[in-house]
Amino acid sequence: MELENLLRDGAALIESNDDDATTGLNIDKITKALNEIIMNKDGSLDLATIVGNLSRNGLGDIVGSWLAAGNNLEINKDQIVDLLGEDKITKFANSLEINIESAKQALVDSLPKVVDMATSEEHSMIDQMVGGGGHALETLSKMFR
């Protein structure tokens, strides 16, 4: 799945959640806001920061479940801040002109599903990013269990 399509799917999840602050927001605006918080300066998915935050904050089991087949473990608002950082949450909220709590909830609702979608195909985005032949996802999943 292409990154742009993945971000649009994530934006659609946010737009259709049960928070009045995000319901009805422009999908393109949400997509742009997501892009700004999960991409690095080179325009690639900022895996280094996310993986580093996982190991420092004990979130490996949660994200490992998103990468593996089966049910996704839930993440809460405090953990989403640990994963992405307060500055990115604030940037996301400001981009969408919503409050911080709504921004956290939007990311809690969408991020597990977006990661799951990115890694569920035979040739996942992770494999494409690291040039693997299907083994990168398996290795990453084992790292977080």
Automatic annotation (TrEMBL):
Matches recorded under InterPro entries: YidB, YidB-like
Pfam families: YidB (PF20159)
Protein known as: DUF937 domain-containing protein
Species the sequence originates in: hydrothermal vent metagenome
